Amino acid sequence: MLFDVERTTVAGRPALTVRGELDLATAPQLADAVDAQLAAAPRGFVVDLTQTAFMDSSGARELARAARKASAAGVELHVLAPQRNGAVRLTIDLLELGSVMPIVDSVAAIGVAVPDVRP
User: What is the pTM of this model?
Assistant: First the structure.
């Protein structure tokens, strides 16, 4: 399966939609996309893993890095990872990533959109 990170919108927020396998080979592409997203100075953004087929510890490490960078920049980050995506949720749950960043099961759980740029 091909890997892609696309800039999209989820729940009215800027988002990075990840498709394919997030692993050692592809995690740097997510890192670049996160850095570009943070450079735009959003108030918040979403990493959407709904269409991610697999995630290993390298992908998890990249999500943790993204959460740290977002927090340091004062940016609210949500990771959308539905329970039905067992391949991704297994890694998230085993590594307890929910203690590092908000992991949500649905778009509705993200809540009200924040403006996409700071005043």
Answer: 0.89
Longest C-alpha distance within the chain, in Å? 40
Domain with residue 47: its CATH number is 3.30.750.24
The reply to whether 47 falls in a domain is yes
Q: Considering only CA atoms, give the Rg of the chain.
A: 13
Residue 118 lies in a domain: no
For the chain, the domain total comes to 1
Inter-CA distances, 89 with 5, 51, 52, 108, 117, Å: 19, 12, 10, 18, 30
CA dist 119 and 20 (Å) reads 35
Tell me the pLDDT tens digit for each residue of 49-62.
Answer: 999 999 999 999 99
Rounded Cα distance between 106 and 79, Å, is 10
